[in-house]
Amino acid sequence: MQLIHSVQALRDALSAHADIAFVPTMGNLHAGHLHLVALAKQHASCVVVSIFVNPLQFGANEDLANYPRTLEADCEKLQQLGVNYVFVPTVSEVYPDFDGVNLHQTMTIQPPPIANTLCGATRPGHFMGVATVVLKLFNMVQPQVAVFGKKDFQQLHIIQALVRQFNLSLTIVAGETMREPSNLAMSSRNGYLSFAEKTQATQLIRALKEVEEKALQGQHDYVSLEQAATQQLTQQGWQVDYVAIRSAQTLLPAMPQDTQLVVLGAAKLGKTRLIDNIEFCAKPLK
After folding, report:
1. pTM above 0.85, yes or no
2. Where are the alpha helices (DSSP H) in 42-152?
3. Which of 126, 173, 201, 271 has the fewest beta carbons closer than 10 A?
4. Residues catalogued as catalytic
5. pLDDT under 50 in the chain at which residues?
6. Which of 171, 14, 180 is nearest to 86 (CA)?
């Protein structure tokens, strides 16, 4: 496994490879990330994993400075999986006009309006930052396949649209959400939870599961189902950003005639914001 820090060195190394699968990360890797890497290995003989904490997707009050950076441990895990290259660029390598304080990234990707809903409603500019850095990384790595997890369902939807609308010659592979034995979705943020909070955190997926079950039973008043789940979590001590039933294809609010659905939730437990989702197929209202 080779550790690479510059774009030129990366391009030189990758010039000898005909098929490349890419997994972009911000590091602090857990079993969910490693599942995506294993999936990438199924699609190409050369696997590149990037580790880059992207300043452009962090808001003014978010935890950029405190985001955990665990490069040595991350590299040990990736080496065990047989990753070919770990790309760890500096901020100035990704943002050439960075002056040490400001990025000066005046050209950015404007994501679709759906990026301003759900997680985007409380994180303005987040998905602009995600889409911009992902396009940069795609240009640097030039992969044939890129792997993203379904836990960040809205992010996956936006990246799929980016690839489609900009005619990029790569395939997006979606990895299933990996879960702890308690059914809590694996996340770098789980490390912020206290022991008691980690036990309580499974309430989020249970609330989403109840929404799914009621929808499958034929309840089509989706707004009422969302409100009931939100109230339940609030009573359990959560600060709920949203519980939303959406079309899994468009991420627009689900209509009674829709069959491919996803229920998504985002909420804070203490100071830790968690997200999760469940995809399901419902019978349309006749």
Report:
1. yes
2. 71-80, 91-94, 119-122, 126-141
3. 271
4. 33
5. none
6. 14
